[in-house]
Amino acid sequence: MVVNVGGVVAVVVFYCVILLTGIWASKKARREEKKCQTSKSEVTIIGGRNISLWLGSFTMTATWVGGGYIMGTAESIYSPELGFVWAVAPFAYIVCFLLAGLFFAKPMRSKRYVTMMDPFQRSYGNAFTAALLIPALLSDIFVIACILASLGGTISIILGISSTISICVSSAVSVIYTLMGGLYSVAYTDVVQLCLIFIGMWVSIPFVLLNPASVDISQTAFLNQSNHTSWIGDLKLEDAGIWADMTLILALGSLAYQVLYQRLLSAASSTQAQLTCFVAAFTCFVLGIPSILIGAVAASTDWNQTEYGLPSPYERGDAPNILPLALLYLTPTWVSVLGIGALAAAVMSSMDSVLLSSASMFTQNIYKSTLRKGASERELLVHPCGVLAGPSGLHSASPASLVGRPEGV
After folding, report:
1. Selection from 184-193, 284-293, 311-320, 359-368 with the highest mean pLDDT
2. What is the pTM of this model?
3. How far is it, in rounded angstroms, from Cα 71 to Cα 76?
């Protein structure tokens, strides 16, 4: 496999920008610690409840706009047995944000909770909360593994480098800035990452749509043609229950994740928490449109006319990687590199959120409440398990304690 030197350089520059943004944000977190009335651990976990509306809107959108959202939507539309009608994520996440804003934002924020487990802990005690946390923490570990595997495969396809290297580098960058600045670092890097996702994905759309190997997607929307597949898909009455189940799992199941409430609880007011949800519902859909278009174009492409050749990605089992494949074979090199930057940004915005949310719940609801009830603020930021290092605690942890420990657990 030939290494794309220009692409590697571009991705390295992007990672450096993200890391520097995270470091800058960690300094802002230190300043916030000095003037904030809340505890230092709350500054790390929920930004001292002082995240502005514009910043909160960015980081709330990044809650669900990640690698799985962007690549999964394109895969669903490209796959012949699915299609647009089965790409439920954009619609489901809009419902999730609207429900969160209407029913959860004000009650959770007004009662000044720190994590989503606090209501359960107050009502049912520590043992019940710990039992609830076990599956939550395990699911986060598996999510991070899937996210990194997806990123490794994507970068390997476009840049021609080992997926192991990309996974290690991406993990190190995400862990470092998350440990340094907590939510502030996560939020400000989300701004950079979402801007790159928006630019990278939308810039690629004209090149993908106008590629000579692809048929006009309006012609393949409903009717199957030779070598092309209908991308709208088909929803039969007997499958309506499955469709509803998938939609509700994403729409309602997503309301049970700490990453969502971490953003809600960081807002400066209850009203602002609501507004960030409503803004995120709109921007989440906008950022999903490029994936929809790319998936439709990929389903309308005669891959034998590209360097990829036959059999098609679906026949080779490459449907999960259809988005990076479309960027690689249907756009110029510089566009595909910009696109891979967007994908890397999407993956990292998901990973840092999960890292912080898992560490926050363990620290707040198990370590502080059960294992070490008298723990100091400094100990909460860097305790023996290495679960959470905040802006004033990173220097106390040795470098070895920050590497090779998924999600800090």
Report:
1. 284-293
2. 0.84
3. 9
**For 267, phi and psi rounded to 5 degrees?**
-65, 150
Cis before 311? omega within 30: yes
Q: Note whether 52 and 268 are within 8 A (CB).
A: yes
Average pLDDT over residues 249-267: 89
For residues 177 and 24, is the Cβ–Cβ distance under 8 A? no
Residue type at 379 in one-letter notation:
E
pLDDT in tens, 121-141: 888 888 888 888 888 888 888
Residue corresponding to tokens 């005669």? 302
Cα distances from 259 to residues 43, 77, 165, 266, 359, in angstroms, run 16, 27, 27, 11, 11
The structure tokens listed for 33 are: 């610690």
Decide if 264 contacts 277 (C-beta within 8 A): yes
Residues of 221-231 as b/e, b for ≥16 C-beta within 10 angstroms? beeeeeebbbb
Tell the residue number behind the tokens 């799985």, with chain if given. 68
Question: Within 10 Å of residue 397's Cβ, how many Cβ atoms?
Answer: 15
Place of tokens 């930021």: 381
Higher-confidence residue of 10 and 20: namely 20
Residue in the block written with tokens 């230092």: 40
219's tokens? 């012609």
Q: Which fold has domain 5-408?
A: Sodium/glucose cotransporter (1.20.1730)
pLDDT bucket at 245, cuts 50 / 70 / 90: very high
Rounded to an integer, what is the distance from CA 236 to the centroid of its chain? Answer: 31
Q: Which long-range contacts (CB under 8 A, 24 or more apart) does 124-131 make?
A: 126/365, 126/366, 126/369, 126/370, 129/365, 129/366, 129/369, 130/365, 130/366, 130/370
Looking at residue 241, what DSSP letter applies?
Answer: H
Residue 285's Cβ-count burial label (10 Å; 0-12, 13-18, 19+) is middle
- Which range among 191-195, 328-332, 396-400 shows the weakest confidence by mean pLDDT? 396-400
Q: How far is CA 54 from the centre of its chain?
A: 18
In degrees, to the nearest 5, what angle opens at C-alpha 282 toward C-alphas 265 and 100?
A: 35
The whole-angstrom separation of Cα 25 and Cα 4 is 32
The token pair at 303 is: 């891959």
The answer to whether the beta carbons of residues 73 and 295 sit under 8 Å apart is: yes
